[in-house]
């Protein structure tokens, strides 16, 4: 009985080995060819993308559009390579097309958000609400645009964080572009004591603005009384500068305003603490 079982197991093993050998003979060359084509194809795609990237950087094509088209080309070439490799494995083109169509439908239904991101990316390319390098604010984030691909927009925040935002959300939401106009206005409110002379204060603050090289002459810097508060006269201080100089002008104006007001004897009011002690008797 044992000998019979061992004989059956041996026969089955030999049968499996024979089938495996036949499959290796039949499909081995195809599999190796497909793997080889995949490796070589990925190398060629990388080279093609490199050439296209260099040509686009040296041409007149807008950098934002060039990067977006490069992203599309990468996906298209990769899909074509995969279909070619599957063809080498024996998949018929018509059957493969049918399978891919079915998969595309199923994936499309499952990934409607991703498809909306592709549509959003196309809208961004056409309408151009922002481009690479622009300082923008959208979806609660602010930063410089680093990359726009077919699915997402990537920005670098002032804290040097990378934020990835879906194109669908960007195209459907409010976008503030701080770079388009080329000039930004800095908004400061500086309060002084009611004892201070208004004309003198305006002259001191205006000199702080006009003495800065990065403050533009046009639009004209503005210093005006903005509000009469309980303990201070508030002045609106509005210098204009180039977008890239915004933070320099922002911080320099505050620092130099404090120094200039102190030098002129103009008080900047602040809360005082008064401690009252009751007589123990």
UniProtKB/TrEMBL annotation:
Q: How does it sit in the membrane?
A: Multi-pass membrane protein
Q: Where in the cell is it found?
A: Cell membrane
Q: Classify the source by domain of life.
A: Bacteria
Q: Where is the Mechanosensitive ion channel MscS C-terminal domain?
A: 189-268
Instruction: Recite the UniProt keywords alphabetically.
Output: Cell membrane, Membrane, Transmembrane, Transmembrane helix
**Which Gene Ontology cellular component annotation is one that this UniProt entry carries?**
plasma membrane
Q: Which InterPro entries match?
A: LSM_dom_sf, MS_channel_1st, MS_channel_C, MSC_TM_helix, MscS_archaea/bacteria_type, MscS_beta-dom_sf, MscS_channel_2nd, MscS_channel_C_sf
Please give one Gene Ontology molecular function term for this protein: mechanosensitive monoatomic ion channel activity
Annotated ranges, domain Mechanosensitive ion channel transmembrane helices 2/3: 72-112
Instruction: Give the transmembrane ranges.
Output: 31-52, 72-91, 103-127
Q: Which residue intervals define the domain Mechanosensitive ion channel MscS in the entry?
A: 114-179
Main localization of the protein described in the UniProt heading: membrane
What is stated as this protein's family in its record?
Belongs to the MscS (TC 1.A.23) family.
Question: What's this protein's name?
Answer: Mechanosensitive ion channel protein
């Amino acid at each position: 009985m044992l000998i019979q079982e061992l004989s059956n197991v041996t026969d089955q093993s030999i049968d499996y080995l024979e089938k495996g050998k036949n499959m290796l003979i039949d499909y081995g060359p195809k599999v190796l060819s497909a793997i080889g084509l995949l490796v070589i194809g990925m190398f060629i795609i990388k080279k093609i993308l490199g050439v296209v990237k260099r040509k686009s950087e040296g041409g007149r094509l807008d950098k934002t559009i060039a990067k977006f088209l490069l992203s599309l080309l990468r996906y298209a070439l990769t899909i074509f390579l995969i279909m070619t490799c599957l063809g080498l494995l024996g998949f018929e083109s018509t059957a493969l097309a049918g399978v891919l169509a079915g998969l595309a439908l199923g994936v499309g239904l499952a990934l409607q958000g991703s498809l909306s991101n592709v549509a959003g990316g196309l809208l961004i390319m056409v309408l151009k609400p922002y481009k690479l390098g622009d300082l923008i604010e959208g979806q609660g984030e602010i930063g410089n645009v680093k990359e726009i691909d077919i699915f997402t927009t990537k920005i670098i925040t002032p804290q040097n964080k990378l934020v990835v935002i879906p194109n669908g959300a960007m195209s459907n939401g409010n976008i503030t572009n701080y770079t388009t106009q080329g000039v930004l206005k800095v908004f400061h409110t500086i309060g002084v004591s009611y004892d201070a002379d208004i004309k003198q204060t305006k002259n001191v603050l205006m000199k702080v603005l006009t003495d800065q090289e990065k403050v533009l002459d046009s639009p004209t810097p503005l210093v005006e009384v903005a509000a009469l508060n309980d303990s201070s006269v508030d002045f609106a201080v509005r210098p204009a500068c180039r977008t890239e100089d915004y933070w320099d002008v922002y911080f320099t104006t505050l620092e130099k305003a404090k120094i200039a007001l102190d030098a002129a004897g103009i008080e900047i009011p602040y809360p005082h603490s008064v401690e009252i002690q009751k007589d123990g008797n």
